[in-house]
Amino acid sequence: MLRETFRFLSGDMGGQMLIILSDNEIYLYNLFYAGIATAIGFSFTLKFIFSGGLGRATKQRFRVRNVVNNQNFFRWSFLFWFGKMTVILGIWYLVFPLQFDIDFLKDASFFLLVLPIVVFTNSWLGLHLILGKKSILYFFASFVIFLILSSIFALKHFIPKGTIEEKYKVTSVEYAYDLELPRTEYLDRIRRISLAIDLYVVLDFEQNNKTKIFFGDERNEIDLDQLKVLIERKKEEYSSVEGSILTYNLIVDKRVKLKYVKDIVHNIRKCGYWGVQYSTGVKHSKYPSYYSGFKNLGIHEYLPPYDPKLEVFLDSIESLDFIKYKISPTASDYFRVPHVQKVNRVVVRRDAHGVLINNESIEIDEIQNVIKLFIKKYSPNCVIVYMPDYNISYGDYIEIKDILYTQIEKLRNEYSIVQFGKPYNKNFRGDLYDSARRKFPLNVVEWTKEEQRLIKLLNRKN
Q1: Is 326 helix (H, G, I), strand (E, B) or coil?
Q2: For residues 118 and 200, what is the distance between their CA atoms, to the nearest angstrom?
């Protein structure tokens, strides 16, 4: 009962993530609690003896020592019970907020081993008062019995060990599909959590790595074709203002193909939304990436507006003969290539073979230095064009995106410290922070599907 109570309370401080214990962990924790329970039971046995539970003849033997025994019993009982409660409450306090920072089996195994033994040694005083010189022999015999009983009770599952976890796994996308989020250094937080809707995208390894989408929670599995209809329906559940600013929080396994994620983002754009949140874990953190404290953290991306007429236009001209017809698109919110070509730019490509910057191969560790120098030299009149291959994994895509955003964030921070003596904070507004944003704007461009099609047509024309 204590094991399960601590496990529920130490989940994630009010969230829904439960600790899943292995068979080995369950046995060791059972052994810890069984040892304490056996030792406490032994101490009650001695109390029964002190109270005269063995009859008049035995009480006659202890009459001389009765005063001393009572004094010792109350003194030691108070000290040891105080220590027991302190330890239990201490474990409770530590496990509750720090379960991922302190692994008791790994970091405090000696403590878990010694504490039940220390509790058991409380019986030594009573044995010595009762048995005198024979107390050493009986103490060791009692200690052997204590170890045997503790080991036996540790094997007994008064609460079925698998029932709770199996039920939880069924209702948890994270555990049911072994969800692994990418981790990032750059982190935005969803400001209006009440207007955030989760979209889980996972791989089902039991069905040949089939990609699955869950809209809102684990009970609502959908197909990609249903997504646009559900998004429009969800918008209708809110007021016109709230419905237009809903944030879709993409909780995507890092092993999912990027093409699948981009199809989802394209459908969100079609419904008139201007941004999505790529949910990520915190880089270099001991907490798991899907820890609920990280749930509203990630990379926010502002999406270009969607024009259905542009797609209709592209559908109509893709079969044309470009010898007879000429295409001269102008710069607009729907086609940003002409505008980007007028400013300093660097093109970052990511495919299965690695990373290219302006068509030159580069190691991932070197990207941040190149990008930082480029932005520092040309900002604000510069643009980073990020062109990932849609066949790479979502984790590879986010890795490069994180590097690009992080370098801009670092330059803003350096500028803010030099100019104003304060670090930059993306969540604050005012001249101090707006100045850093204007100096180093977040000009990272990814072509939309319509822009990619138009670029392809223009290249075919040439």
Answers
A1: coil
A2: 49
C-alpha to C-alpha distance for 85 and 455, rounded to whole angstroms: 71
Block residue for tokens 């710069």: 331
Percent of the chain with pLDDT over 90: 36
Give the separation between CA 456 and CA 449, rounded to whole angstroms: 11
Which amino acid is it at 394?
Y
Helix (H) or strand (E) holding 95: helix 66-98
Asked if 112 contacts 6 with a C-beta cutoff of 8 angstroms, the reply is: no
Q: What's this model's pTM, rounded to 2 decimal places? A: 0.75
Q: How far apart are CA 366 and CA 374, in angstroms?
A: 13
Q: How confident is the model at residue 324 (pLDDT cuts 50, 70, 90)?
A: low
Q: Is the peptide bond before 380 cis (omega within 30 degrees of 0)?
A: yes
Closest to 189 in 3D by CA, of 291, 277, 289 = 277
Taking Cα atoms as reference points, which of 224, 248, 7, 240 lies closest to residue 104?
A: 7
Determine the residue type at 199: L
Torsion of CA 52, 57, 62, 63, to 10 degrees: 100
What Rg, from alpha-carbon coordinates, does the chain have?
A: 33
Contact 264, 227 (CB under 8 A): yes
Helix (H) or strand (E) holding 210: strand 210-215
